[in-house]
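Problem 12. The chain below contains 85 residues. Write out its predicted structure in token notation.
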Amino acid sequence: MITKHSTCSVFEMFLGFLVGVVFLLLTVWGSTPVVPGFFSLLGLETIGATFTLIIAILSFLASLLFGLCILKRVWHCCFGKKGGC
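Solution.
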């Protein structure tokens, strides 16, 4: 049986998680969120709402998936067959 191991380090997965969280906060947080404000500045209010929703969904999925990868990697490191990090 061939097993494929990920070549991503925990640091790279953490950066992916962090980017997902930052973009999620930029799309939904504050009285005037940054991403919708940027689209309004360009005069793309109608398309900007759609792009903002797409960016928010993708950033949520990225933070969720990278967070699960980090949790899985740490779980296998600390509680796996080898035991101990």
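Discussion. Residues 45-79 form the longest helix (35 residues). Students who got a different answer should revisit the alignment rule from Section 12.3.
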